[in-house]
Amino acid sequence: MRKKKGVTIAVIVLCVFMVFALSGCLGGREINDLEIVIGIGVDKDEKTGNVLVTAQIVRKQAAGSSPGSDGGGDEKAFWNVSSVGGSIFEAMRQMTHKTGNRLFVSHNQVVIFGNDVAAEGLQSYIDFFLRAREMRPTVLILVAEGRASDVMDAKPDTEKFPAMNIAKLVKTYGYTSHLYKVNMKDFSECLMCSEKASFAPLITVSDNEGSKDVFVPGMAVFKNGKMVGKLGHGEVRGVLWVLGKVKSGVITVPSPDGGGKAILEIIEAKSKAIPEIIDGKIIIHVMVEVELSLSEQTTAENLATVPAFGKIQDASEEVVRKEIMAAFKKTSELKADIFGFSEMLYKKYSKEWKSMKDNWDDIYPTIELDIDVASRVVTTNLLRNPASPKEGEK
Amino acid sequence: MSIEKGRISGSQLLFMFAGFVQGSALLVDFTIGITEQQSWMVILAGLVMMVPFILSYAALAKRFHGKNLVQINDMVYGRFLGKVLSLYYIFFLSMTLSFNILDVGELYKNFLMPDTPFIFLLAVFAAACAYAVAKGIEVLARVSHLFVITGIFVIVSTFILLIDQMDFSNFLPLFELPLIRIIQGIHILSAIPYGETLVFFMIMGRLNNTERAAGYALGGLLIGAMNLLAVSVRNTAVLGRTQSIWTSASFQSIRLIDIGTVLTRMDFLIGIAQTILIFFKCSLFFYALATALSQLFGLKSYLPLILPLAGIEVILAATVFQSPVDHAVITQNAGIIYSSPLIYVFSPLTLLIAKIRSLPGHERGGGT
User: Fold this and answer.
1) What does pTM read for this prediction?
2) Distance (Å) of CA A232 to CA A154, A180, A323
3) B241 contacts A133? CB cut-off 8 A
């Protein structure tokens, strides 16, 4: 009886201890003590050559106010804190001298690398972002055309936080397919493959009558972690056609009568790329299927006819073909396999790949692309005919 | 003399086998660095390779109905050699249990509760296992299907949530790796998730009917292996070549779940499932260790050993490795070597000797 009582007391004492130790309160941090980071910029410090990290921190008091009220310096909903260190982690910890609290990066949306850092190579800068426990692998990567710290200060009036605005710009890439969102996991995958190139959206600041806006002019191309060039909007879409990542966008073709333009919206796009080696020559068969809608026309001609549709479809197929070829030409000049043809060959021709691997940079520009595009205009939206006089009434 | 009165049914054995193998889901990561995109093959090959050994466990359980491992060893090898072999088994059980407790500690330290003192995590987990073991094998058997269903639910739901991020070309090329790496992978897989089912030597004696033990054991093994396969396929399809760089590929792939920016941060799912499944696995290990030791020392009950053993296992887990790197390297290399004779040699050998000597013969049904 006494023994049973002793066990009961021991269990109760243990339970009380467990409440304190296992409730998670040991690592608990109050929201007021958190410096919530929503964006991180990485630059080279011009004076010391060390890493300059800029963290965009939410100012909790100002964050609740409406977007229009943060025009003044003191009313900003965010606080950009910078710190210099020998490494990113060191610089992040150095920031506590300014913030008083450790940075909480779990809600970070974007990491922007400055042009100088990207040119030097991201291999030595990206480890922290992959390794840190709080960091998410879905954080987006961007490259600033100038300095990352400048980009992190610019935003439209409708947004409170520049970092959130940048993340939104990238996440909505599908409207044009002129850029593509690349996260930490995607980028690290490319870093692990020396033959395959990777890309990340470029971001730049434009001066719009005194106010600073950010703009994505294309994508930065990386080879072995180093930025080697840039792709413009059309070239990026050329890459995305092959990768099957085109979501939507606009294709403009001349109207069949030559009197105006037909503007088509991409409804759906599918693609397949199959490598083939014929007598030592590498041929990549690219098959693209596009569904389009006639979204606008600048001619009085009725384009909703079978012959007109045929011509529009042919013209749109040519646009797609040209975009793919432009992207291939540019990446051939850069010797950067952004399409991942090396990986396709490795997967299909793993034995032959071994002999190509070492000379891949020289082989890549010699690849022949066999592009087969099939487009279909599936809707004319709300109009059957344009609002213009009928044929006989002209 | 029997130190355990509880009885388990064949279907309970099936779920116990399945839950036990599921508990090793995180250990699949051990082979990823070696077998990369071909890990799924290794899981299947390891399963096929283990079938004869599992059949030998079942044949022994049937032959020596109602007997546990220590009793069988005494009968087959004689009192002295039998005890030495039983000590070897006990060493294996003890070390493997401490490694598994350490796995839980590392899981929490790395991903879930980084600021909680490590030793406290280990102690609480061991205490929970000790409590379950004290309740007896029947209680664990009765709830085993719940553990299995929880594990399957988490694996299936995460698989579905990640399906849009899967690239099945990540499995190509199919036969690229050197044979030696595949063999090494198969060895690790057969020794760790499958080979550890040696613990059932201490449990199958409690079966109320050993006639269909082999079928239930193989069925459970198959369910467990399919779970491991689903985990491996999910990780490879989602993470591609990066799967080998992460501390835990499963955690990393689940961290990628992002459905409309609403369904994100699902890490807790795998935290819960893994805790439950490793708890089940460790409890079975703990039970096997406690009963084997009490049988060896001729105790009437294994209950007095539970708390001291829990303490020893926690200390072992906390001190046995200097770092997680040590843990991975030693488990992948030394760990599978010390367990190999027990898995691949002694169970078929015991069966062979028992057949030659026509054991248990007149001792059938008797105690030692």
Assistant:
1) 0.86
2) 22, 12, 11
3) no
